[in-house]
TrEMBL record:
Residues 120-270 form the Rod shape-determining protein MreC beta-barrel core domain. The keyword Ubl conjugation does not apply. Residues 66-103 form a coiled coil. This is Cell shape-determining protein MreC. It comes from the Bacteria. It comes from Clostridium cibarium. PANTHER family: CELL SHAPE-DETERMINING PROTEIN MREC. Belongs to the MreC family. Keywords: Cell shape, Coiled coil. Involved in formation and maintenance of cell shape. InterPro entries: Cell/Rod_1, Cell/Rod_MreC_2, MreC, MreC_beta-barrel_core.
Length: 281
């Protein structure tokens, strides 16, 4: 490559000197005799030669500076990647901030409870349908039947507790019953239980809704607070479909939980400040 550059440079220098000599020679002829006419005839040739010389010079400059351009592009690509990473990090932080803002809003509306943050350390049984084991228990004020939430909504309740651990059973389990209401229609007679569709998707189903209920796809399901077990107005999920049972004269709704049970990491135990009796309002 070095040898090629040297040969190319010598060629350019020789051509430049030759063209420069030709230009000086023809420019020094001021007479209009035969030589003057020949000079005029050479003007187009001089222009072509000048443009050719300039083109060769530009090409050589580009060739010699190509490594600099390549390095500059490499640096720009690196900076672009760093900016993308920073943007993704900002997006993740914003999403996390929005979620925990929901927890803070809930705490402000229900300030008669303590909220105990716990981390999931394992599954109870064969998988998420059997519940989670968290890293806090009786020593931290957790008791059986306390309600469990996440930034996205209702998770379930504490089914068992030890000194420094507890088992949380999710609403996707058929053994967990929740009194719920339809946010839009205000129907508050619904009972929610875990449900699997034909594709084995872990969903929940609300039964015991009035046959004349106006519940529809897209409606939001919330806890009703009836039964004094679950605090009211915790988001449960969104209606996917509605079914009518003409025999039992009622409607039911299949609901997609607002919580993604496969991605849970941190949970909050809702503990009444009055520990004499676990009673929610």
């Amino acid at each position: 490559m070095k040898l090629f550059k040297n040969k190319l440079a010598v060629t350019v220098i020789v051509l430049s000197v030759a063209f420069l000599g030709l230009i000086i020679f023809t420019a020094s002829k001021e007479t209009k005799g035969p030589m003057g006419a020949a000079g005029d005839a050479l003007n187009p040739i001089q222009k072509i030669a000048y443009n050719a010389n300039r083109g060769v010079k530009d090409f050589v400059d580009f060739f010699l500076n190509f490594s600099d351009v390549k390095e500059e592009n490499k640096q720009l690509a690196k900076e672009n990647k760093e900016l993308k990473n920073e943007l993704q990090e900002y997006s993740n932080l914003k999403e996390e901030n929005d979620k925990f803002r929901g927890i803070l809003d809930f705490k402000e509306q229900h300030n008669n409870y303590n909220y105990i943050a716990t981390n999931i350390i394992s599954y109870s049984g064969s998988g998420i349908i059997d519940g989670y084991i968290v890293d806090k228990g009786q020593n931290d004020g957790i008791e059986k039947n306390m309600i469990v939430i996440s930034p996205d909504g209702l998770v379930g309740q504490v089914s068992s507790v030890g000194s420094n651990w507890a088992i949380v059973q999710g609403i996707i389990n058929e053994n967990v019953n929740v009194s719920v209401k339809v946010e839009n229609t205000k129907d508050n007679t619904g009972i929610l239980k875990g449900y699997k569709d034909n594709s084995n998707n872990l969903l929940v189903k609300v039964s015991n809704l009035p046959v004349d209920s106006q519940v529809k796809e897209g409606d939001v399901i919330m806890t009703s607070g009836l039964g004094f077990l679950y605090p009211k107005d915790i988001k449960v999920g969104t209606v996917m479909s509605v079914e009518e049972d003409k025999v039992k004269v009622m409607k039911s709704a299949v609901v997609k939980p607002s919580v993604d049970f496969s991605k849970l990491e941190e949970l909050y135990i809702v503990a009444p400040k009055d520990k004499k009796e676990i009673k929610y309002d």
